Amino acid sequence: MKRALPVTREDNFPEWYQAVVDQADLAETSPVRGCMIIKPWGWGIWELVQASLDADIKRTGHENCYFPLFIPLGFIAQEASHVEGFAKEMAVVTHHRLKVVDGKLVVDPASELEEPLVVRPTSETIIGDAFRRWVSSYRDLPILINQWANVVRWEMRTRMFLRTTEFLWQEGHTAHATREDALEETLKMLEVYRALAEDVLAMPVVVGEKPESERFPGAEATFSIEAMMQDGKALQAGTSHYLGTNFARAQNIRYQSAAGDLEFCHTTSWGVSTRLIGGVIMTHGDDDGLRLPPRIAPKQVVIVPMLREKPEDAEVLAYCERLEAEIGKLSAFGQPLRVKLDNKPARSANKRWDWVRRGAPILLEVGPRDMASDQVTLIRRDKLRDGDKIVSQGILRSGFLERAPDLLAEIQANLYAEAKARLDGNIRSDFEDFEAIAAYFGAAAEDDEARSSFRGWARAPWARPTGGELEAVEARLKALKLTLRNVPTGRQAPLDAACVFTGRPAVEEILIARAY
Amino acid sequence: MKRALPVTREDNFPEWYQAVVDQADLAETSPVRGCMIIKPWGWGIWELVQASLDADIKRTGHENCYFPLFIPLGFIAQEASHVEGFAKEMAVVTHHRLKVVDGKLVVDPASELEEPLVVRPTSETIIGDAFRRWVSSYRDLPILINQWANVVRWEMRTRMFLRTTEFLWQEGHTAHATREDALEETLKMLEVYRALAEDVLAMPVVVGEKPESERFPGAEATFSIEAMMQDGKALQAGTSHYLGTNFARAQNIRYQSAAGDLEFCHTTSWGVSTRLIGGVIMTHGDDDGLRLPPRIAPKQVVIVPMLREKPEDAEVLAYCERLEAEIGKLSAFGQPLRVKLDNKPARSANKRWDWVRRGAPILLEVGPRDMASDQVTLIRRDKLRDGDKIVSQGILRSGFLERAPDLLAEIQANLYAEAKARLDGNIRSDFEDFEAIAAYFGAAAEDDEARSSFRGWARAPWARPTGGELEAVEARLKALKLTLRNVPTGRQAPLDAACVFTGRPAVEEILIARAY
Lengths: 516, 516
Fold this sequence. Notes:
The structure is a homodimer of 516-residue chains. Chain A is of the alpha+beta class. Chain A has three domains: 13-284, Bira Bifunctional Protein, Domain 2 (BirA Bifunctional Protein, domain 2), CATH 3.30.930.10; 294-424, Anticodon-binding domain (Rossmann fold), CATH 3.40.50; 430-513, Translation Initiation Factor IF3 (2-Layer Sandwich), CATH 3.30.110. Chain A is 34% helix and 27% strand. The first copy, chain A, is globular, with a radius of gyration of 26 Å. The interface between A and B is large, with 66 and 66 residues.
């Protein structure tokens, strides 16, 4: 079975992932350790994700701002758990000048900063400092802001989009008068993320609360959306944090209540990043490359003229140009349909496969015969093959123009349905005890292959252990390369079920999985 | 004459500028030296500038990408003049970890990087490195890319928007087969910047080439748009550089020509930044605050209900809500009209002045009497006063709805015309010699005030001196705090004119001004 990528998902999932990133022209490694170059096709996807999410962030009452890239070292130290969580992995600016010594460019030792600056790994502290200045009365609350920014976390092992030293994200930060208001905000943005993942990226997720040990450093509660990749691993695709009054106490963010008392604000923060693109790849990609949900495809329809260096080429090209103009007048998902005529000088077959690998949802191939019968040859990227054969279909030009928006909606829905079936079909909950879970994930298997083959997730009764008891649970899981994902929202533990870890009565269920 | 700002332009222009930044709620200083916090109203302006320019950048065939924030020190050293131009002012990352020592958070000495990383002051070198990999044949050319990014230049004296350590910009980078193609690109993007400045920001500019001494480090030619601020100083508002083959030679960016030869690419780069917002302030602001051209006003129409804590308040509010919905259905400049009902609990008069200071183009005040006669009271920010008196006008609701888009276009045109008259009326060219120019700019004046009072620009015949001769010219100007701005495009030197500096026959004219 010849496929467009040099490696299949089954052969080697990590290599397949990297092959998609390369061959779909999404990104490439840079000479800077752990930092990537996002190429136009990858950036185009991110622009569409941004546009959709930005509209939702504004619709829910938030305003965008911009805060400094650098954070004074002293700020990081203000919130104790925050320090602990982040202290080990930051880029630190210590000097501000270079100079030439013996013909060589070096750091000028005389330019050492009095206080080192950290390149922001996240902005709670620098934004909290502004909140302190901005808030004085309950009338100033809530403060609802967001920024689109680059952040840096010095990662030892990096992987394109999933974990890079520099990445791009949005970070929302809000301050409220009460715990209730702040929690409502935290959950509202979690729902915005769920809708983004499911409705825009066609990536089904499980919404829930992270266990105590997986909280954001300094948070009272962390919620996440978790998506299942095609290797069965979980990807944390977005998080929303209720920070309680922890940062407010550390940074003295207080307001005067209506009653005249001075109270600490309750704050939240929430973010999603370019990691989402990694999620899209591992949710929808196949052995021919990427498959893009139409809502985030930089080009939704690509026209490839079948030119043969013959006189009729000009006519075919003219036909394609008219077609491009006609399609460009259509709308899909409430926006102008994004169409491209690929008329660069290259073999038609190469162009076809370039667009297949890049995941353009609809390919239209147009040759002299199509033109003669006023039709196009349509290839749907989500249903590319029947066995080994490429599925293409002749369709009247007028018929395509009529159907195109619906067809794109159908592809969007189809990709979602496929992933949703995979997620729902691969969360098992029929485990008697922890040993059964361990056995399922291949702890007993001698070979690495069994350990790492597709296993989906386990859902198990959970008594919500804390402190040392929780640490012991995590240690047992870690030995099996497993992690606690989240406690799905709105799901009850079975009656009388016992926690698989502690044996105590379960109060909820928790998801267990290998994870990125 | 009471005005809404505590200081007038005439009193103290720099303080007036800072007052606008503060009181229009555009930005504030941060605890990080030289870095500012851009607040929602300021960021909203930047988003509109970005959206407009981004569309033009794409329309002219460029694609957006994203390159790393960090540049290895060795890259900066590759292009010799580039080093010289930038070497003195960069943030340098030398370590990648913090640790706690004796309860104090410090930089971990063990985490020193083998090669320091510079926070990008501009990205020619890191992008050129990618071009080297991306280009092999003439068929790969041109490469036309752009990125929106933050950059850092360690500035000793900073001023909000105009010169900050971190700033936001777009930087376009292109590679071409020939000098002609690259020069055409350089000038095409210069024209895009001119159109942005004049048509979108309503800020008239002079387009021209910078003298050799003012070129971008490593460029063969640098072109700029120069705007005249209300204190007569020039603001370089955008630059476009033809880099020749300098960076290509330094970084080995070569292509195989159709004839089979290996040739160096000709590259360009061009950028505009958040500095543009400083230009907008100093072009359009008045003693009551900012005046925003409607095309970049985050809110074009603001409705202020005149509430008096009386029963009819609810009715007035409902009337305003209907009005907001009706206005929101209109279009202006081809986009949905941006309207806001300011219903926050504050005194109406305070709200009025907040929006005056922020520069919202149209204010609608609505009280019970307006409602009773189905009208609104309209205040145009561009024509706020007649003498000391605020000019407001009752207008039927239906009439306003009909006229609103035209009114916004009229305000946009009016702000441009006002600034254009100032620019055109304040470039003097009737100087006999350099002494006359020096005298005009107050070199002879004893007091600082005469030196710094409004003087506009001088335009003088220019023989295009180079090297040491040019250095001498600049030294003479520097003593008077004057600078060479650019050689306006398409303007001939008067017949037989002699260069005011060298006495040799002039080949063109050059602009001389104080500058930001």
